[in-house]
Amino acid sequence: MRPVSSSCPGRRGTPSGRRARGDTVGARVAAAGRAVPLTGIGDRGHRRDCRILFLVSTRAAAERALGPHPAGTRGGGIVARISSARPSAEPSSPEQHDRRRRILRAAARIGGEKSLERVQMHEVAKEAGVAIGTLYRYFPSKVHLFTGVMAAQVDRLREQVHAPAPGTSPEDAVADLLVQASRYLMAQPVLSASMLHASNTAHVATVPDTMHIDNTFRDILLRAVGIDDPTVQDVTLVRLVMQCWYGVLQSSLNGRASMADVESDIRLACRLLLAPRSNAPRAKKRRA
């Protein structure tokens, strides 16, 4: 009597030669990443059936977690998906800068209508009039793309910032600026939610725009406070204000706070954090 297989209770085991041949089939299935017909295998081959089905189901589970492999990368889809977390290319020529700006504008238009998970990269490439490879060269993922959109929005905010009115306290100047920015972002909630999610998810090592956002926004707030030569404490306090603002804005986008709550929370945070600021020298006022 043949021994009963422990891996498939109730089925008979197979000779060593059949097991070796089953291993070869399993290797082919793992490499191909797809199921093969299991016809012609009787009871004695059931152990091999189990091995093949296990490999196929493991591959299917991995694809469900990471997404299916791109076309033309059969057998290497998972590796290709993981390797996509590479740094983005920086444009060097005027034409490349123009293409990158077109991509960001297209992403902002589409992202204003669709949530982040519904935005398709090929749709952005088509809207921008660029090849899909060009899009992925500058923005390897949607996190890169919408972090870049937020960086462009912060640059636009920097150009629009004006000196505070005479007699305005530093904390009120920063609060006024953040309230203005909040109103602008809340007017486009779908895009703002995508930008915040992307920038909060992005890692500084692979998404350079995260550092650009932080540094630019910090400089905007320090200018509003009126500090030319900030101390370590000044930078720390401004960073805390930025983090508070991100949190308040996210709560509002999630429906947990009204715009009135956002404004009052921002002003309170600025008073608590910036009123007791350091005695760093203030920017000199220009004479009329």
TrEMBL record:
Residues 97-157 form the HTH tetR-type domain. The keyword DNA-binding applies. PROSITE patterns: HTH_TETR_2. This is TetR/AcrR family transcriptional regulator. Pfam families: TetR_C_20 (PF17925), TetR_N (PF00440). Residues 1-25 are annotated as: Disordered. The keyword DNA-binding applies. One of its GO terms (molecular function) is transcription cis-regulatory region binding. It comes from Actinomadura syzygii. Residues 120-139 bind DNA. Keywords: DNA-binding.
